[in-house]
Amino acid sequence: MSEDRMLSRIAALLRQAEGTDNTHEAEAFMAAAQRLATA
Question: Is 39 helix (H, G, I), strand (E, B) or coil?
Fold first, then answer.
């Protein structure tokens, strides 16, 4: 995956984490973003 695509996916996951009122969903989105960022 290209770096630009990875950064776009991370940004999208972070937006989803910030946009939900569900704590569990926010944590799941943050965890997914963190996994991509450290891969």
Answer: coil
Quote the pLDDT of residue 29: 98
Q: How far is CA 7 from the centre of its chain?
A: 9
Give the contacts of 9 (CB within 8 A, at least 6 positions apart).
1, 36
Residues in the chain: 39
The helix/strand/coil state of 20 is coil
* pTM listed for this prediction: 0.88
Q: What is the mean pLDDT of residues 8-27?
A: 98
Under 8 Å between Cβ of 33 and 13: yes
